[in-house]
Amino acid sequence: MPENDMSNPRRMVAQCYSSDAEAYEKTWAPVLRPHARQLLDCLPLHLAGRVLDAGAGVGSLLPDIRKRAPSAVVVAADCALGMLARAPASVPRTVTDLLCLGFAPATFDVVVMAFVLFHVHDPSQAMREARRVLRPAGTVGAITWDGEPRFPAQRVWMEELDSQGAVAIDPSFVNYEPVGSPTKMRGLLEAAGFDAVRAWTAPFDHEYGMEEFITIRTTRGIHRRRFESLDEDRRRSFLHRVRERLGTMQRSDFVDRSTLIFTTATRR
C-alpha cells in the first residue's frame, strides 16, 4: 500500500497524527494530561513490573506512569511514528496497531489506553488484545469521550467552515458511538473477558482562550484538514468571520463541557 494512501482508516489516523505531532505536543497534550493522570491514580501501578501505554502519542503521560511505577519496565506503543518520535527516548517505543499488538501473551501487569479508543475502528478487538497481553489479574484503564464537542464556540467554528465550503469530516477518522458512555465501555470490557469492571464519568470543562481555541483548531486534527482544504482567500475570510463572531461571545461560551468516560477492569 502506498505510504500516502489515506483510504485505510488506521493509516489515515497514523499519518494525520504524525504530521500534527509538534502542535499536539505543544497545545493539546498539556490539556489532556491532567485528566489522564486521574486515570493513573486508579490503576495499581505501584505493584506493576511491566506497563504498556497503548496509544502513547508523544509520550506526555510516560513521566507520570514512571513516577507511579518506579520499578516497572514501561513501553510506549502507538500507530503514529511521528508522535512516538517525540516521546522520551529512554522509554522503549514501538509502532504498532492496537488491534494486533506485537507482544507475547501475558506480558504486562497494566495497560493504559488514554484518549485512543475512539480512533480504533474495532474497539472490541482492541480490548481483546489488551486482555491478551495482560497477565492474569492484570488491569486495563481507558479514557474516552462521550462525543464531539458541542459548546457555542465550537458551533461557530463548524458553521463558518461549512459556510466557506470546507471538506466534510471523514467519518472513519473518529467514532465515539461504541465507546461514548459508561454502559458501552462496560459492555466492551465484559465482552472481552474482563472482570471487576468500573466505569464512571467526569467533566472535561476546559475553558479555551479565543486564540488558544483557534490555534488548536487550525494546527491539528480533522479541523486542521478542513481549514487547510480552503484556498488562501477563503482561509482569510473564514478567520475574519470566526474572530468577529467569537469576539462577541462570553467566557462561558468557550468552555468545552464534554464528558470523559473512565473505565478500569481486571483480566480474568
Characterise this structure.
The chain contains ten helices and nine strands. The strands form two sheets. It has a seven-stranded mixed sheet, sandwiched between helices. The N terminus is likely disordered. Helix content is 40%, strand content 21%. It has a domain of 186 residues: Rossmann fold. With 268 residues, the protein is an alpha/beta fold.
CATH class of the domain at 9-148 and 173-207 and 257-267, named Alpha Beta
CATH architecture of the domain at 9-148 and 173-207 and 257-267: 3-Layer(aba) Sandwich
* Main sheet attributes: strand count, strand direction, barrel closure: 7 strands, mixed
> How far apart, in Å, are the first and last alpha carbons?
38 Å
What would the principal axes of the Cα set say about the shape?
elongated
Our estimate of the beta-strand percent is 15-25%
Q: Helicity, in percent?
A: 40-55%
User: Would you tell me the structural class of the helices and strands?
Assistant: alpha/beta
Question: What is the CATH homology-level superfamily of the domain at 9-148 and 173-207 and 257-267?
Answer: Vaccinia Virus protein VP39
The total beta strand count reads 9
User: How are the strands ordered across the major sheet?
Assistant: 3-2-1-4-5-9-6
Averaged pLDDT, please? 95
Unreliable segments (pLDDT under 50, ≥5 consecutive)? 1-6
Radius of gyration: 19 Å
The helix count comes to 10
Along the chain, the helix and strand elements come as HHEHEHEEHEHHEEHHHEE
Could you please say which CATH topology of the domain at 9-148 and 173-207 and 257-267 applies here? Rossmann fold
